[in-house]
Write a structure and sequence with these properties.
Length: about 100
């Protein structure tokens, strides 16, 4: 698989999740005859859950010079990106 940036993956997954949520809400609104079901759709919650998922499974666990977590995607079968696979100069995120 070709490596993609975190923001690309985030956008891609968000679109899939939003479409699925719209479909599910439409089915629920038809089955239970509920109007304005869109108020149950919370984009901030989708983004928050997506961020948690990405930090846990896709984002590199290396720490960069500023002390923040590396923003690159993990290399295949590793917890680190290509750079942090070789050396962890500033340590790693404890999970
Ligand atoms: Zn990294």
């Amino acid at each position: 698989m070709k490596e993609k940036s975190i923001s690309y993956i985030k956008k891609y997954l968000f679109n899939i999740l939003e479409e699925e949520i719209n479909n599910i809400l439409l089915i629920i609104s038809k089955d239970y005859n509920i109007n304005n079901i869109d108020k149950y759709k919370n984009k901030d919650n989708i983004k928050k859950n997506l961020d948690n998922f990405i930090d846990k499974y896709i984002r590199c666990l290396g720490i960069i010079k500023s002390g923040a977590q590396c923003a690159r995607t993990r290399n295949c079968c590793s917890s680190f990106c290509k750079i942090h696979q070789k050396t962890l100069k500033f340590g790693k995120v404890i999970s």
